[in-house]
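Hi, here's the filled form for the chain we discussed.

Project: internal
Contact: R.S.
Residues: 88
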Amino acid sequence: MLFYREGFREPMSKEVLIRQGPAEKFIVNLRSGTTWWRNIKQASERQIFHLNSPYLQSVNDVEISWVSEILALQIPLFDLPPGVSGKK
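And the returned structure, exactly as it came back:
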């Protein structure tokens, strides 16, 4: 489970890239309305980014609406319903 500052949205900036480092420390909301948890990399064009993960498919050439820093990760105390966790 991810805990992040749901009400605290900040614009994408160089400071976000510096604070993130090599980790996946931000929830990223795209202009398309989708939300991802990935490492953010600057693309060759200004205001265009790539979202990478060593475990999941990359999302390339996207515009970011806002980001929110992840505060904590926690393993659920009970099993989630089928379909929610990806288990069948």
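Let me know if anything looks off before we file it.
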